[in-house]
Structure formats: C-alpha cells, structure tokens
Amino acid sequence: MLVSWRWLQDYVNLDIDHDELAERLAMSGLNHEGTEAIGDDFAIDLEVTSNRPDCLGHIGVAREAAVLCDVDLQIPNPAPIGTGGAIEDLTSVTIEASELCTRYTARVVRGVKIGPSPDWLVQKLATIGLASVNNIVDITNFVLMESGQPLHAFDFSGIKGASILVRRAHAGEEFLAINHRGYSLEPTDCVIADAERAIALGGVMGGADSEVTNLTTDVLVESADFAPLAIRTTARRLKLHSPSSYRFERGVDPAGVDWASRRCCELILELAGGELADGVIDARSQPAPEPQPITLRLSQIPRILGIDVPSSTVRRILRALGTTEVSAGSEKVAVTPPSWRRDLVREIDLVEEVARIHGYDKIPEDIGVAMTASHRTDHQRVFSRIRGALAACGFSEALTPSVVSEEHSAVFSPWTDFEPLQCNTPMLHGADRLRRSLIPSLLASRQTNEALANPTIELFETAKIYLTTTDGLPDEPWMLAITSSRPWDEVKGVLEALVARLNPRHRLATTDWRGEFFESNQACGLLLKGETIGCLGEVSADARKQFGLRGRTLVAELRIAPLQSISELIPQYEPVSLFPSTSRDVNLIVGESVTWDSVADIVAKTCGDVLERLDYRETYRDPERDGVGKKRLLFSFVLRSATGTLTGEQADEIRDRVVTACRDAHEAIMIE
Amino acid sequence: MTGLSDFLTQLDDLVSEAQSAFDAAADSAELEDSRVAFLGAKSGRLKSVQKGMGSVVGSDKPAAGKRLNEVKQQIQNAFDGAQTRLVAGTLSIGQQPAVDHSVPGRRPSLGHLHPVTQTIEELMDIMGRLGFTPADGPEIEDEWHNFEALNIPREHPARDPLDNFYLNVAHQTAESSLLLRSQTSTVQIRVMEKTPPPIRIISLGRVYRPDTADATHYPMFHQMEGLLVDRQVTMADLKSVLRIFATSYLGDEVHVRFRPSFFPFTEPSVEADYHWNDAWVEFGGAGMVDPNVLRAVGYDPEEVTGFAFGLGVERLCMRRHNITDIRELYKNDVRFLEQF
Lengths: 672, 340
Hints:
The complex is a heterodimer.
Chain A: E1 2-4, H1 5-8, H2 18-26, E2 31-38, E3 41-47, H3 58-69, E4 92-95, E5 101-110, H4 119-127, H5 135-147, E6 151-155, E7 163-168, E8 174-176, E9 182-184, E10 190-193, E11 198-201, E12 205-206, E13 219-226, H6 228-238, H7 243-250, H8 256-272, E14 275-276, E15 281-284, E16 294-297, H9 300-305, H10 311-320, E17 324-328, E18 332-336, H11 347-358, H12 378-392, E19 396-397, E20 403-404, H13 406-411, E21 422-423, E22 433-434, H14 439-451, E23 459-464, E24 478-484, H15 488-502, E25 509-511, E26 518-528, E27 531-539, H16 541-546, E28 554-559, H17 560-566, E29 582-591, H18 596-607, E30 611-620, H19 623-626, E31 630-639, H20 648-666, E32 669-670
Parallel strand pairs in A: 4-7, 19-23
Antiparallel strand pairs in A: 1-3, 2-3, 5-13, 5-14, 5-15, 6-13, 7-10, 8-9, 10-11, 11-12, 16-18, 17-18, 20-22, 23-24, 24-28, 25-26, 26-27, 27-28, 29-31, 29-32, 30-31
Helix pairs in contact in A: 4-5, 5-8, 6-7, 10-11, 12-15, 18-20
Chain B: H1 4-24, H2 28-39, H3 45-51, H4 61-87, H5 115-129, E1 133-135, E2 140-142, H6 143-146, E3 167-168, E4 178-180, H7 185-194, E5 199-208, E6 220-230, H8 235-250, E7 256-263, E8 266-276, E9 279-289, H9 291-296, E10 305-312, H10 313-321, H11 328-331, H12 334-337
Parallel strand pairs in B: 1-5
Antiparallel strand pairs in B: 2-4, 5-6, 6-10, 7-8, 8-9, 9-10
Helix pairs in contact in B: 1-2, 1-4, 2-4, 5-10
C-alpha cells in the first residue's frame, strides 16, 4: 500500500517526519518497505497484512498514526445535498445473488461536466502511482485510496432500462471489461447487469459499455460490499486483479460503504458540477454484522505478554483504536470493536492490539528460559554417519527436487507397483510426479554436470520417496542413492564400508536383480539380514539415453530404515587379543557357479573365533590349465587367537581344514 | 634366555638402522664403511645379531629363522638401493639427490556435504543446546494438519489450489484432499495431538509452494520450526529464545528487532528482522500459539500457553555462504558443491 505523506496530513497533524512515522508504523504492524520522493511529496510503501484491510486506505493508516502519536484524527463528514429529484424515480437495484453481494448502494448525479482534475487531486494520485484520467474517474480512485472502499461510476446512459440487477453470471456469458479485454464468465462470478447484459464484474472491474467518457453527462455511483471468497475466485480465475478486488477479498468496512458514496458524490458536485438525485438506493441482502462486545481479562496481559501494562494504558489504547468501552472493572474491560476492525473478535485479538501499540520493544528479551533435557535423535545420528561415510568415500551430497517428469518417473521404479502420485500443478519444468526413486533425479543432476564437462561426478542424496498406499497417507520411506563412474568393485566397496560403519558385524549380501534399466548381468539386489534393501547396477545404454548421459555410470539405491535398524550407535568395547596375528594365502580352483559368498561362509565357519579378517584377492581364469568352467579364487585370511600365539603349524592346520571344507562343499582344488 | 619377541625387535631395529646408514652415505667410500659395519662377514652387526638365534626356544626357531632371512634380504636391498643412487644420475658424489617437495601429494578425494545440510546441522545444533528436540512428520499431508488445525479455515486464501500442490489421489475423500505440506507447522500439530504438554520441539524439512523459480524463489525449500508449550510461557520467553538463537547463528554484534505481524496460527504474531548491509532483513516469523490451535489439538488454552517460530533455511544458508541465486542449491553442479 502506497501512502502519500502529504495526503495523510489531511487527517492527522503529526509533529514527526515521514521517516519517523514509517519506523513507528513498521514497529506496530505495517512493515515499511521503502519511501520514495515524488515531487514535494513522499510515497511511503507499507506492507499491509491480510488481517488489516482497514489500512488499505489513507484514513486507516492515519488512524494508526493518530493512535501511535496520540493525536486527534479528523475525518470529513460528507453531506452532499440532493436537488435533482428522488432517486427512486431514476433507478432501482435488485440483489438476486444474495450470497455474492451483501449490500449495494447507488447514487446518481446528472449533468456533470467531464474534464481534467484539479492539481491537488492529480498530484495526490501521482504520488501513489495513479495516472489522472478525468475528474469523475479520479474522484472514484481518490475515495477508494482514501477510505479503502472501492467505488464504480457508470455512465448512466449506458445502463439499459436504467435499473441495476446484481446476479450470478450465466455460464459462458461474455463480458468486455474496461481494459477492453473479453472474459468468459461462470455462475460463480457476480455481475452487475442492466436489463440486457452484464455491465460490470462486481467488485472486480467495470465494463467497457458503461465506462465514463468525455461524452458522459449522468453518472451512477456504485458503492457496494461483495463476498470476499467469490471475488477472490473470480479474480484468480480470470487473472484479473484490481485495487477493488484486492480490497473486497480482504473485506471492507460495512459502515464505510455509504460514507464513500457520499464522499464521492460530494466531490463530483464540487469538481464536475451536476445535480445529485435526492436520497440513495441502499439494497441489502443481509443485515450488517453487529459487532459483539469482547471481554479482556487484564490478567491475560502478563500471562501472554510476560509484562504488566497498567489498566489505564490498556483502556487508552483500546479507546484510541476506535473500540467502544462497554464496561471496565479492576479485572476486566469489555469493548465493542469498530466496524472497520472485523479482525477483532476474541480476547487474544485485544491482547495483541495492546501489545503492538504499547510496543513489542517493552517486552524483555533477556529472561532465563528454563533448561530442559534434549538429545540428538537416532535418526539424526544415523544420517550424520551415512553422510559422513559417503563424504569420506569421495561422494558429494546433492539435493534434488521431490518431483520428476512423467518420463523420468517411469524409467526406474522398483519399489512399488503403484502409479506415482501426481500434483495438480507442475512444480518445475513440467515435472509433476512425486518420485518413487531418487535415481532419476540423481541421473538428471549427473547430466547437468556432464553437459558442463565436469570431470568427476560422484554424488549421493538422502531423501524421501513417495509411495501410494491403499488408504491413509502415502508411505514416505527415506532412501539413500548414489551415482558414480568408478569401477563396480569400488562402488560396491563403498556400500560395504557404509554398512560396516553403521555396524561392523553386518554384511551386505547380494541377490539377482532383473530389469532393463541396468546392463544385463551388471546389477544385483542388496540384502541385509536376508531382506532386499536396495540395488546396485550399471545403467544401461538405453536408460542413459533417456537422461542424455554419454558416460557409463553405476547407481545404487538403498532404504535407510533397515540401515538404521542395524546401526550400532554406541559401540560396546571388546577386548583385543594380546597375541600376534599370522596370515595364510589360499588359491583354489572351483567351478564358475561357486560364489565368493559361499566360500567366505566356509572360511568363517571353519576358522571360528580365530578368524580376524578375510581378504578376497582376485578371481583368475586359465581354461587351458584348469579346464573350461573353472576359475581360481585367491584369498588370504588373518588368524589371531585371544589366548595365545598361533604357531605356524596351527595356522597351517587351519588353512588345511579350510581347503578340505571347500573341497567337500565345492570340489575345490588347492594350488600350492 | 632371549625370547622370540626380543629377537624380532633386534632384527627390526637393525633394518631401520642399516637403512638410515646407507641413505646417509654421501659417497661410495662411506657406503662401503657402512656395508662392512652391517653386512660384514666377520664382525658385521647382522652376524652378531644372528648369534642371538641360539637363545630362542626350540618351538620359536622356525619363526625366528624365517624373519632372519627376510631381514637379511631387506638390508641387502637397502644397500643395493643406496649403491644405485650413488652411481646413477648426474649428481656428483657428495650431493643429496634433487627432490622437488612441491610436487603434489596424492590426495584422497573427499566429498562435500550440501550447504543446506550444513546449515541445518548448525541450526539443529543451536536449537539442541536450547533444549529443543527434533521431530519429524510426513511431507504429504491432509488438510486438517496443514490448514484446519492451524486455524486456517476453508475459505482462507492460503488454501487456494493455486497456492498449494494438491495431489490427485484416487482414495481421498471430498472432505480432505492431500497436498504437499506448505509449512512444517504440520509436525507441531502431529506432535501435540500425540503428546501432552510440555512440548519443546524443532521440526525441519522440505516444504512446497507453487512459486516460479527465480533467484530468490524455489517451489521447494526447507523450513525450520520450533514450538514450546508449557504453563506460563510468555512472549518474553519467545523473544529471549529468538534473541539467543539469532545471536548464536548470526554473531554477537547482530541487531535484531521484533515487530508485529500476522499469521493465522499465532497471536500475537511477530516478525524478527536482523540488520545487514544497512537494511532490515526478515529472519523469521513467530508468535504465541493461537488459542484455536491449542484447542484443535486438545490442549486447554487456559492451562497452557506456547510460542512457535519458523524460518526459511535456504535464505539463512544463502546469507551464510553469500550465495545469490537459490537455484544454484538444487542444480548440484559439483563445482558448486565442492565449495562447501
């Protein structure tokens, strides 16, 4: 809301400068966004919160200023004299759409002379950024910006049948607005119609047909009150926002409707001449709301604000704000709010009024707030470990949007059979599907980097995915995903290291994984405690193409809940052996179908407690020497006993048992 | 009687001493002296240590012997290396070989945490010290938790479909649609519905509003909200906590002011600003929990009072790292990420 500093002084006599006033207004709820010098005036830009439509006019702001500076407010009392015959003989108003329009007043001035506005009016409007049109239009704008009550002046000759009907629009009804654009209306829209057609879109914009022009001689002045929700719906749908719709959306002062009409007509008579018809057509579809008294218990002030405010101060503030004191005692005050403060209905509303006028700065900000126990949650600890481990492994953390395009959503979705959830409005670049996997988002980020020829793209993200359920709120499991161009064993090693970081006694196992998203034979499911918690694989060339990716990449995605459930956040000490370790190497010929996991299990079982670590070295194939379908597994293990030094003979004996067990299980042959 | 471990220690010491002596040799004469001292057939130190084998117990002898052989080889290798060093190259005898210590080492690559994550951790840290415990809730919400319980009735403009990401969900009823939460206050409602007062929580996470992405807007961002409900909580508590929080995050010298504002779920409502570059910058919104909100979760506003505050994480993150375009945060250009 732009406020003219000079205009404001028509209503209050302030002994402070405009900067000081802006500061005080900001500190009482009208935030100061800036001030600009316009000629010899200043335009003060104030942010008016949606609960304070009364401050969408100069008088409202002046009223606040008067309260803050403890000075009187002078508001004109317009009393234009009707000399042009009874208005009832000229026109009539019928409100048919009673839910959309609660009140409609009309006055008529005949014989006006359209012309330029006087300088004082042109300048006031210029300060707040409104260009002068002609005296009639300028007057309606002036009164709007003075009182916050929107007005409309019709060319009376443009109203067919000379009578006004406030009704719902017909479906598909065409309307040409004053901006000379056509709009197609719906029955939720409120129109002002004459005997034939809509001549204004109620509360939003006037119509081109009944616009005041240089030829206009008679005008009908509308001052009305429209339902906020209906105005908002119409303005939004048609993307037609006006100073009028802005105010009706927030609610106007019901008692200000007639005042604005009188003020407007008085100024017309003064600046454009003519004769005012006697009286007013005042059509109401609902009685004006009667403000109800509100009781403020004085004890609530310290209870909510933490400070005492003397009851005399409380009463002075409430009175200054325009409330009417109904009763006052030592414990409570009852007041009736003024018609323009429809936001005041509860006790807490009055507490806030007292606080903001008395000053938030009077409330201390250095009191001792009681201490209380608090702790990091397991969730925080686990996430911090996961992120720390991945960063240590050279992965940087990405944050990607929660929605993806329909195409990307469809490329990879192994965690649900349900369709993705869809937003009614796209969030970014047409993306409207809530993601069912983090991998498409990470690949999109990968593409961004690849396009910039960034050489190393190693990314991870921890975020939620969104899965439809059959009832209730959707599932939102936390996931971890990575994308990397390192070799398979390195990426798998990172995931193994991650699991070991969370709990060294747990191991990731693998299982088959199918799906065209990955290169064939280059993907596996990841198992923890026998349950599939994720997958790892190399993205297939076809899938890469859908993301515009040239370079090969591996991706992995894991559910975090199983990782969290195995996490040992407070490791328990285990004594370390005081004796030296010894190691043995093994080189076995086995069939291709023998997995490392199965050999590792045998080693673990055979060695028992003395196995300190088992290191896979390599797989080696020499069909000529070992035969087709055979491979050599090279590995070594470290043995250490808790109770004594293992001798070479003991270590050899253990190694021999391992070899024997492998032979029994897999017909493995040991190479010396 | 010498134990195995003593013997092994002697061997290890011998290797390192021989290596140092050979490395220190400036010319072939010095190197020859060192060779005699360590590897000399008659009275070299290796020879004398070897005699210690006799004192190792029988069962340890194989291990000791194996190690002795390895050590012999290591010392010989060290000698050979030193000889090569002295003979090869253009260095004249008596000079150290040229070593360029400015040649870069081999760096392990370390990943970087996203600046938003780092900001969140900082914020959580500060709030944790003030006794606030994190609480989590769903990002997809019903209208009760996102609006109704927060004193945002059906006709309120904040519920407009154009201002929210409502979801097309088959099973949702006419009474309640699902939407992506537009604020993390939803978590406060969920916690209060389940937990009797006192409450002191912080909720942090993604929120969604249909803004067109530009330098200062993004349709998805992170919010942090705090809530404290107890008997006798006043605006003085609110101001004091926010003051400590602002000072902790922005520094001791920061100027903070509190001015009246409007939010449906708090009354009185507060906007906190901090002074930066000659202007007041919005820090976050706050206020005393509206009695309607307390009632909605089954609390008695005559019994308890509370305050809530919320702030946008991205804005704080951008101010902290001097990032001027919010979209950078979600592009995930590695050159951006690696700066933090």
